[in-house]
């Protein structure tokens, strides 16, 4: 398990941020289209995890 912040360039941080935002944008549709409640819960949990990650990324200064 990682305990230190990775040393990423500004472009790399921007890419990570973009990927997290893209995943967050796509999840509502995936949640809506699933008919399995257990999988829907997993997706809701993933959305919460991604939102928390996005909040932390906005607080992380670029290297």
Mean pLDDT: 89
> Could you describe the largest sheet, including whether it forms a barrel?
none
- Topology as H/E string? HH
H/I helix tally? 2
Cα gyration radius (Å) = 14 Å
Query: Structural class given helices, strands, pairing?
Result: mainly alpha
Detailed description of the structure:
By secondary structure, the chain is an all-alpha fold. The chain has a domain at 12-17 and 28-59. It has helices spanning 10-33, 37-59. Helix 1 (10-33) packs antiparallel against helix 2 (37-59). It is elongated and about 40 Å long. The mean pLDDT is 89.
Short summary:
By secondary structure, the chain is mostly helical. The chain has helices at 10-33, 37-59.
Key terms for this structure?
about 60 residues, mainly alpha, about 0% strand, elongated
Topology:
Layout: H1 10-33, H2 37-59
């Amino acid at each position: 398990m990682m305990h230190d912040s990775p040393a990423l360039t500004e472009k790399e941080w921007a890419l990570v941020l973009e990927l997290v935002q893209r995943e967050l944008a796509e999840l509502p549709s995936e949640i809506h289209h699933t008919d399995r409640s257990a999988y829907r819960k997993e997706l809701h949990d993933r959305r919460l995890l991604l939102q928390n990650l996005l909040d932390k990324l906005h607080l992380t200064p670029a290297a």
